[in-house]
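Hypothesis: this fold can be encoded by more than one sequence.
Test: take the structure tokens below, design a sequence, compare later.
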């Protein structure tokens, strides 16, 4: 596990109660829950960024003959 660093955050009462309830139900600490939520958010942002890049590159792929010249072979069976 990576070295953890202490941070201080301010939560409103509703957020604090929610985290306390989920913590008790899951058996995880509030800190662990917050780390998980941040990791999930980071993964979602990365996935969205990759999807956007794929959409942007699709037009290039579909129109650049150097990139598509072998696409007809995609369905071919290759044997060693």
């Amino acid at each position: 596990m990576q070295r953890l660093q202490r941070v201080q955050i301010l939560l409103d009462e509703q957020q604090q109660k929610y985290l306390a309830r989920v913590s008790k139900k899951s058996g995880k600490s509030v800190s662990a829950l917050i780390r998980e939520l941040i990791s999930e958010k980071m993964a979602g942002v990365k996935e969205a960024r990759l999807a956007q890049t794929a959409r942007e590159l699709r037009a290039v792929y579909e129109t650049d003959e150097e990139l598509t010249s072998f696409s007809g072979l995609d369905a071919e069976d290759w044997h060693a």
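The first helix runs from residue 13 to 26. The chain has a mean pLDDT of 86.
Hypothesis status: open.
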